[in-house]
Design a protein that fits this description.
The complex is a heterodimer of chains A (303) and B (130). With 303 residues, chain A is α/β, with parallel strands linked by helices. Chain A is 28% helix and 24% strand. In chain A, the strands form two sheets. Chain A has a seven-stranded mixed β-sheet. Classes of the chains: A alpha/beta (303), B alpha/beta (130).
Chain lengths: 303, 130
């Protein structure tokens, strides 16, 4: 039986950062491979999907793939025009992502491969392309089971819960943690005592729901784009501060957290410092959570 | 404008938000109907047209923007007055909501007075689509 694993192919948010100062972490944008007995599930299609596609085409094992898209911002789809298996006739590629209809999903992917932005369209894809009905609430790909939920990011954006091998993986590439909490704290003095009590209840309820979505996950891959200093000026841009993410994972009893969707502005040294700060939080909170930096090429066994 | 009581519908999975609307409208003469899920709300809206509909965006069973898009496809709801209520304060969401004909986009937390004022304002005026 083939091995089962998860591998990071792209870990950056916003834009690719192939700079010498960034290569320990990696420069490609969002893409994660979940491989269970050669059933290949791909989370997002940023530039990381390009080297993954090259490897898949070279190996030519299981030629049916499922690509899950969290949303259609360019750092999550911009690798597709260069995804080699799409251009090979006997491959079969299934897409799933937010949308009301198959036509809407197709249109969203087609539109980045149109003049004047790209020389050839998706009609040049020779693989069999299938768009999974976006109204499906549960999906499967071989032995892998998938469900999804809406997260806090501009436009309709999904987080995915993936059961693969013996592990539960939560993939949340883009999500602004605890946004309501901050909104309430910011305006608290403007409210009556009764409203303050109600808003605290509202916040507790909202956070409780967010915790339930990731409760006791084996692996949480989560947006951690900003430092506290970044977040001062970028609140409302749809991404999380790593401090909030670590606390969120601890509160939910997650086993392993992978900080993901790194800001391309942050070089390897900056991300090392983020990691050190995360370790301090783990120590302060005396938790069993293990925290990791998602980096290109990192492979996690799923057996 | 008829003499019958106006109907206001709130769709939000957060029980405290629904309670906040109850409390905010205690002194108003209207029927307030709340739903905790998109599915239950859609079942009701399949046959009923409220005077005003408040709609959350992040809900467990369906996001509010997709819900509104589906709602607009029903002939009964092409012109239903809809206001988004959400913690998602993003320009992209505002744009989509606007394109789908939402009248307003208000962000949580919203004070009780603001809720009652918005409702009073909308149900005392004819639907601007009419």
């Amino acid at each position: 039986m083939a091995k089962s694993y998860l591998r990071f192919w792209g870990v950056r948010g916003s834009y690719a950062a192939p700079f010498p100062t960034h290569l320990k972490v990696g420069g490609n944008t969002s893409c994660v491979e979940v491989n269970v007995d050669d059933h290949v599930l791909i989370c997002d299609a940023g530039t990381g999907i390009i080297p993954l596609g090259n490897r898949l085409a070279a190996e030519a094992k299981n030629k049916e793939l499922l690509i899950l898209l969290t949303h259609y911002h360019w750092d999550h789809i911009c690798g597709l025009p260069f995804f080699v298996p799409a251009f090979i006739p006997d491959w079969h590629i299934n897409f799933f992502g937010p949308g009301e209809s198959i036509q809407e999903m197709k249109q969203k992917l087609d539109s980045q491969m149109q003049a004047p932005y790209f020389p050839v369209g998706t009609e040049t894809w020779m693989a069999k392309i299938n768009y999974v009905n976006p109204r499906e609430t549960k999906l499967s790909h071989g032995p892998i089971e998938i469900s999804y939920y809406s997260v806090h990011h501009p436009g309709v954006t999904y987080g995915y819960k993936i059961k693969a091998g013996s592990k539960t993986i939560i993939y949340v590439s883009d999500n602004e943690c605890q946004f309501l909490d901050k909104s309430i704290k910011q305006k608290m003095t403007e409210f009556s005592e009764e409203e303050q009590i109600m808003f605290e209840d509202m916040n507790r309820e909202e956070y409780g729901y967010e915790l339930e979505t990731i409760r006791a996950a084996d692996i949480l891959i989560h947006d951690a784009q900003y430092t506290p200093e970044d977040y001062e000026t970028k609140r409302g841009w749809g991404h999380s501060c790593y401090v909030d993410v670590v606390n969120y994972a601890i509160d939910a009893g997650v086993k392993d957290l992978y900080l993901y969707h790194h800001d391309p502005y942050n070089d390897d040294n900056a991300i090392d410092k983020i990691y050190e700060k995360c370790l301090e939080i783990l120590q302060e909170r005396d938790t069993s959570l293990r925290c990791h930096i998602a980096r290109e090429g990192l492979e996690i066994p799923l057996d | 404008m008829g003499d019958s009581k106006k109907t206001v519908v709130v769709v939000d999975d957060n029980a405290t938000v629904r309670a906040l609307f109850e409390r905010s409208t205690e002194d108003l003469t209207l029927d307030l109907i709340s739903f905790s899920s998109a599915e239950a709300a859609m079942e009701y809206l399949g046959e009923n047209k409220p005077d005003l509909l408040f709609l959350d965006i992040i809900m467990p069973d369906k996001d509010g923007l997709t819900f509104l898009s589906e709602l607009r496809k029903l002939p009964l709801h092409r012109d239903t007055a809809v206001i988004m209520i959400t913690s998602k304060d993003y320009a992209q969401d505002r744009t989509v909501a606007n394109e789908l004909g939402a009248l307003e986009f208000i962000t949580k937390p919203m004070p009780m007075r603001a809720i009652s004022d918005i409702i009073t304002n909308h149900i005392n005026n004819d639907n601007p689509y009419n």
